[in-house]
C-alpha cells in the first residue's frame, strides 16, 4: 500500500461551492444522486483532469451540465474516478448505488439495528459517492432523503429542514439545507424509527435553539444526563471562549454500532450509544463522566473543527488536540480540578507514553501515513491536548485567550494547519513560538532528570535539569524541547517558600510568588534560588505541566512528606504514585532474587495517614491510593516482567487490605452509611464517596483476603446504582469460580436486555485475574450475546482481555497471542478499523522476555502473511515488526 506524505500536499485542483445530494433509501440498494458545482482553481492547468475519490461504489451514471459522459471520458481506478476534458466551471451529476446493510466496516452509510446512519470522518464520504473527499474542499450541502415513512419515521441530515412532502411514489421526500460550507467528512444522514427527547436553549445573544436527542424508543428513559451535559457545554463555551452555537437545531443520534465514541457532524452528531444513554441503575459514575465529556467534546468541535477545520489529515491534532484540551478544561471546571487532571494524566501514561516509546511512535502532527484511521491516536488526541496546555502555561491565560480570539477571527470558515494555530498565538502576543513548534514535529517522550544542591552558607538552592529525547522511527536525532516546569519549594513546616531567582532583585514583583514556571529550553538548564535557609523539598512539574518523564531522586521520606504536605493536590497524588512504583519495583526485584516479600512499614503508614485524613476530599484519597496500573508499570520497566508486575501489585493490594483492615472497614462502613437511602446523584462529592468506598472494598477483597467478601456480595446484591453494584461484582470476579459464577449469572439474568450493561458483563469477566482467563474468554466468544459485528462487544471481550488481562493474555504458552491474532484476521474481513486497533497489545512485543518476544513476533508474522489484508491492519502489523 502507498504511503501518503505531508510533504506531497498540493491544494485541490477543483473546488466545490455546493452539492445537492439525493438518497433513495433501501437497505441493500440505496441510490445516491450527487449534483456538484465544480470550479477549477486559478492555479490549475486547463487540461487537468477532475480526480474524484470513491471506494466500493457501483457507478450508475456520470453527466456534465446535464449531458451524459461515457466511459471514454472517464477512468475508474481502484479508489478514484478520473474524468478528462472538463470545463473550467460545470455541474457534475454522479449516480451511485450502495449497500448499507452489507456495510460491516461502519464507514460511509450503514445500518445499525435498522437505523440508517453515516460515518464520514476521515474518508467515509467516498463510500457514498465520487467526490473530492478531502477536508480542504468545503461545500454547501442540500440533502434530500427519500424513504418509507412507516419504516423510517425520522429522516435527518445537516442543517435545517426546508421541504417535507409525500411524493407521487408514496414515499416521504425531506430536504435539509446546511448554510455553512463544510468538508465532506462532516456530512451526516440518519433515518429510522427513533424517539425524540427535545429541550430548548437560548444562546447568549438571545437566539433560540432546539436541542434534539434521538434514541431507539426503548432508551427514551436514558437521555436526561446527556441533555443536561449538552446545555452545560453550550453555556461553558459561551463563557470560557465567547463561542455561541450557530444553527437553529442541534441534533444528536445514538446508535449501538459505532467504531469510535462519537462524531461531530455539523448540526447532527452521531454517537456511540455508550456516550449518551444513562440511568443510575445501568450506568456507572465513570459512564456519566464519559457522557458529559464526550457530549461536550463533540459540541466544542463546532468551533474547533467545524467552523475552522483541517487543511489535510496530517493536521488532525489541530482540531482533536485543541478540542480534548477544551473538554479537559470543561470537565475540570465542573468536577474537582485535581481529580480531572489525575484522570488526564493516567490516560496519557497508560496509552500515549507506550505509543511514544513503541514502533508506531509518531509526532503530534504526523508526516506520513498509510491509513489515516490509524492516526486517531492517543498521541494526536491526548499529547496534542498537552501541547495546547503547555502553550497556555507558557504564555499565560490572558495571552492564550488573545491567541484563541485571533485564531477564530482570522480563520473562521477556513481549512488550516497547526502552524496557523500557533502563529495566531504568536501574532496576538508578539511572541516567537518557533522552538515550541518542535512539540508538533518531534515524536517521543522527553526524559527529564533533576539534580538539586542546597548551600546553607549562601542560602541558595540549585535545580539542574537535563533533558533527553530518544530516537523514534524515522527520527534518529532530536533538538531540545521547550518544557515548562511548574515549580514550588516546600519548606520543613510544610508551607511553600517565596521563590526568588538569584538573578532577580529582592523587590521584583515575581519574587514573593510561591510557584514559578521554569522553562527548559536547552539540554541542560540550571536555576538558582536565593534566600533558601534550609533544604526544601522541591515540588516539580506541578499539575503535570509537561508530558515528560521526570526522573526524581527524591528520598522515600520526601515522597511521604509531599504526600502529606504538597499544596498542589496533583503532586500529592504524584508523590503517592512515585512511592508506590518504587515499592513495587523493589518487590519485583525481591521476588526475582527469591527474597521474601515485605510491605515497607513507612509506605503502609503513609497510606494509612492518607486514608484516615478526613480533611481530604474522598475522591482525592481514592486517587492517591489507587495503585499505578499494570500498563504504566510495564512502561516503567526496560524489560517487562509480566509475572513480577502482577505478583508485586497483588501483594501490595493484599497486604494493604490485611494490615489496614480495621481502617478500611471503618471508612467503607462510614461512607456506605452516609449514602444509604439517598437517591443517586452525579455530583463530585457523591462520586468521590462512592469511589473511595469501592476502593476500600477492592483492598479488603483482594484475592486471599476475606474481610471484604461479605460486604462486596451485599453491595452487589442490594445497590440501587451501577457504580456500587459493579464495585461489588469486581471483587467477586477475582475470586474462585464457585464464588464468582453465581454473581455473573445473576447479573446477566437481570441485564440481558440492556446491551451496554451486557458489555460490562463481558468486560468484567474478560479482565478478571483468574488462572484460566483465556478459557473463560473462549467460552464467552460462543455466548449468544457475543457478536463480532458490534464494536462495543468486541472491545468488551477481546479488546479488554488483550489490553487489560496481562496474566491471561501473556500466558507463557502463547495461547493468548494466537487467540488475538485469530481474532484480528477474522475481524479484518468485516471491520478493518476495529481489527487494526486490536493490534495494539502486540506493539510492545520487543520489551518482553525472549520467549514471549518470539511468540508475539510469530503471531504478528502470521497476520502479516495473510493475503488481502486491509491497509489498516497492514500498517499496524508491518510497523510493529519493522
Ligand atoms: N472526530 C471524530 C472522529 C471519528 C472517527 C475517526 C475514524 C473512524 C471513525 C470515527 N468516528 C469518529 C471523533 C472525535 O474526536 O470527536
Ligand atoms: Zn474530537
UniProtKB/TrEMBL annotation:
GO-annotated molecular function: alanyl aminopeptidase activity; metallopeptidase activity; zinc ion binding
Pfam families reported in the protein's UniProt record: DUF3458, DUF3458_C, Peptidase_M1, Peptidase_M1_N
Single Gene Ontology BP annotation: proteolysis
Peptidase M1 alanyl aminopeptidase C-terminal domain segment(s): 556-882
InterPro entries assigned to the protein according to its UniProt record, in alphabetical order: Aminopeptidase_N-like_N, Aminopeptidase_N-like_N_sf, PepN_Ig-like_sf, Peptidase_M1, Peptidase_M1_dom, Peptidase_M1_pepN, Peptidase_M1_pepN_C, Peptidase_M1_pepN_C_sf
Boundaries of every Peptidase M1 membrane alanine aminopeptidase domain copy: 226-438
Family note: Belongs to the peptidase M1 family.
Function: Aminopeptidase N is involved in the degradation of intracellular peptides generated by protein breakdown during normal growth as well as in response to nutrient starvation.
The protein's name: Aminopeptidase N
Source organism per UniProt: Tistrella mobilis (strain KA081020-065)
Gene responsible for this protein: pepN
Amino acid at each position: 500500500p502507498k504511503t501518503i506524505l505531508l510533504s506531497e500536499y498540493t491544494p485541490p485542483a477543483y473546488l466545490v461551492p455546493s452539492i445537492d445530494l439525493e438518497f433513495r433509501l433501501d437497505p441493500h440498494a440505496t441510490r445516491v444522486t450527487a449534483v456538484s458545482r465544480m470550479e477549477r482553481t486559478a492555479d490549475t492547468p486547463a487540461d487537468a483532469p477532475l480526480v474524484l475519490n470513491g471506494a466500493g461504489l457501483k457507478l450508475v451514471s456520470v453527466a456534465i451540465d446535464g449531458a451524459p459522459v461515457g466511459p471514454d471520458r472517464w477512468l475508474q481506478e481502484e479508489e478514484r474516478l478520473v474524468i478528462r476534458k472538463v470545463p473550467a466551471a460545470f455541474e457534475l451529476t454522479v449516480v451511485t448505488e450502495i449497500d448499507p446493510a452489507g456495510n460491516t466496516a461502519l464507514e460511509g452509510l450503514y445500518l445499525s439495528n435498522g437505523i440508517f446512519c453515516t460515518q464520514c470522518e476521515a474518508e467515509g464520504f467516498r463510500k457514498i459517492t465520487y467526490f473530492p473527499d478531502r477536508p480542504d474542499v468545503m461545500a454547501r450541502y442540500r440533502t434530500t432523503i427519500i424513504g418509507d415513512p412507516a419504516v423510517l419515521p425520522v429522516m435527518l441530515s445537516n442543517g435545517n429542514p426546508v421541504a417535507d412532502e409525500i411524493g407521487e411514489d408514496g414515499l416521504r421526500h425531506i430536504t435539509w439545507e446546511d448554510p455553512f460550507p463544510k468538508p465532506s467528512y462532516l456530512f451526516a444522514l440518519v433515518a429510522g424509527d427513533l424517539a425524540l427527547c427535545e429541550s430548548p436553549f437560548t444562546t447568549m445573544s438571545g437566539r433560540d435553539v432546539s436541542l434534539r436527542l434521538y434514541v431507539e424508543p426503548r432508551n427514551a428513559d436514558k437521555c436526561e444526563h446527556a441533555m443536561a451535559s449538552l446545555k452545560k457545554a453550550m453555556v461553558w463555551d459561551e463563557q470560557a471562549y465567547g463561542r455561541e452555537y450557530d444553527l437553529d437545531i442541534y441534533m444528536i443520534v445514538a446508535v449501538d454500532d459505532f467504531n469510535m465514541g462519537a462524531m461531530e457532524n455539523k448540526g447532527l452528531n452521531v454517537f456511540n450509544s455508550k456516550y449518551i444513554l444513562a440511568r443510575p441503575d445501568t450506568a456507572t459514575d465513570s459512564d456519566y463522566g464519559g457522557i458529559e465529556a464526550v457530549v461536550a467534546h463533540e459540541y466544542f468541535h463546532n468551533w474547533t473543527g467545524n467552523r475552522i477545520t483541517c487543511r489535510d489529515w496530517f493536521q488532525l491534532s489541530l482540531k482533536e488536540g485543541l478540542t480534548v484540551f477544551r473538554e479537559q478544561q470543561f470537565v475540570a471546571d465542573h468536577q474537582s480540578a485535581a481529580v480531572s487532571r489525575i484522570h488526564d494524566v493516567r490516560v496519557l501514561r497508560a496509552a500515549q507514553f507506550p505509543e511514544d516509546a513503541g514502533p508506531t511512535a509518531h509526532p503530534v502532527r504526523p508526516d506520513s501515513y498509510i491509513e489515516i484511521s490509524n492516526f486517531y491516536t492517543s498521541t494526536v488526541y491526548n499529547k496534542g491536548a498537552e501541547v495546547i496546555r503547555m502553550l497556555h502555561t507558557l504564555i499565560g491565560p490572558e495571552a492564550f485567550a488573545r491567541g484563541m480570539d485571533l485564531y477564530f477571527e482570522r480563520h473562521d470558515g477556513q481549512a488550516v494547519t497547526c502552524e496557523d494555530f500557533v502563529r495566531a498565538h504568536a501574532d496576538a502576543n508578539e511572541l516567537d513560538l518557533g522552538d515550541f513548534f518542535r512539540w508538533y514535529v518531534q515524536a517521543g517522550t522527553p526524559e527529564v532528570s533533576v539534580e538539586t544542591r542546597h548551600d546553607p552558607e549562601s542560602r541558595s538552592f540549585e535545580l539542574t535539569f537535563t533533558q533527553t529525547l530518544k530516537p523514534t522511527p524515522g527520527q534518529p536525532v532530536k533538538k531540545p524541547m521547550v518544557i515548562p516546569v511548574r515549580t514550588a519549594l516546600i519548606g520543613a513546616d510544610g508551607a511553600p517558600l517565596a521563590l526568588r531567582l538569584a538573578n532577580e532583585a529582592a523587590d521584583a514583583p515575581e519574587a514573593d510568588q510561591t510557584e514559578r514556571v521554569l522553562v527548559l529550553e536547552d539540554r541542560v538548564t540550571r536555576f538558582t534560588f536565593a534566600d533558601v535557609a534550609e533544604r526544601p523539598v522541591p515540588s516539580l512539574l506541578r499539575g503535570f505541566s509537561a508530558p515528560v518523564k521526570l526522573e526524581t531522586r527524591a528520598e522515600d521520606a520526601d515522597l511521604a512528606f509531599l504526600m502529606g504536605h504538597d499544596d498542589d493536590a496533583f503532586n500529592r497524588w504524584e508523590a503517592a504514585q512515585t512511592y508506590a512504583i518504587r515499592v513495587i519495583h523493589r518487590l519485583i526485584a525481591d521476588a526475582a532474587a527469591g527474597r521474601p516479600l515485605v510491605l515497607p512499614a513507612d509506605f503502609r503508614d503513609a497510606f494509612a495517614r492518607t486514608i484516615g485524613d478526613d480533611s481530604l476530599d474522598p475522591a482525592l484519597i481514592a486517587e492517591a491510593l489507587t495503585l499505578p496500573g499494570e500498563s504504566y508499570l510495564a512502561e516503567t520497566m526496560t524489560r517487562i516482567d509480566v509475572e513480577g508486575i502482577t505478583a508485586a501489585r497483588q501483594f501490595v493490594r493484599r497486604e494493604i487490605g490485611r494490615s489496614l483492615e480495621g481502617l478500611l472497614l471503618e471508612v467503607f462502613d462510614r461512607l456506605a452509611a452516609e449514602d444509604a437511602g439517598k437517591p443517586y446523584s452525579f455530583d463530585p462529592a457523591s462520586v468521590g464517596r462512592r469511589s473511595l468506598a469501592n476502593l476500600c472494598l477492592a483492598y479488603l477483597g483482594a484475592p486471599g483476603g476475606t474481610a471484604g467478601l461479605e460486604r462486596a456480595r451485599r453491595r452487589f446484591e442490594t445497590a440501587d446504582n451501577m457504580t456500587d453494584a459493579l464495585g461489588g461484582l469486581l471483587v467477586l470476579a477475582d475470586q474462585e469460580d464457585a464464588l464468582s459464577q453465581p454473581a455473573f449469572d445473576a447479573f446477566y439474568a437481570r441485564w440481558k436486555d440492556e446491551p451496554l450493561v451486557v458489555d460490562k458483563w463481558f468486560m468484567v469477566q474478560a479482565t478478571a485475574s483468574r488462572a484460566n482467563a483465556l478459557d473463560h474468554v473462549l467460552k464467552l466468544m460462543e455466548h449468544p450475546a457475543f457478536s463480532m459485528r458490534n464494536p462495543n462487544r468486541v472491545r468488551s471481550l477481546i479488546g479488554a482481555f488483550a489490553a487489560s488481562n496481562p496474566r491471561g493474555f501473556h500466558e507463557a504458552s502463547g495461547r493468548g497471542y494466537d487467540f488475538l491474532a485469530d481474532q484480528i484476521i477474522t475481524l479484518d474481513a468485516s471491520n478493518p478499523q476495529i481489527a487494526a486497533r486490536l493490534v495494539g497489545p502486540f506493539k510492545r512485543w520487543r520489551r518482553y522476555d525472549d520467549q514471549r518476544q518470539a511468540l508475539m513476533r510469530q503471531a504478528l508474522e502470521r497476520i502479516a502473511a495473510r493475503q488481502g489484508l486491509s491497509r489498516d491492519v497492514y500498517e499496524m502489523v508491518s510497523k510493529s515488526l519493522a
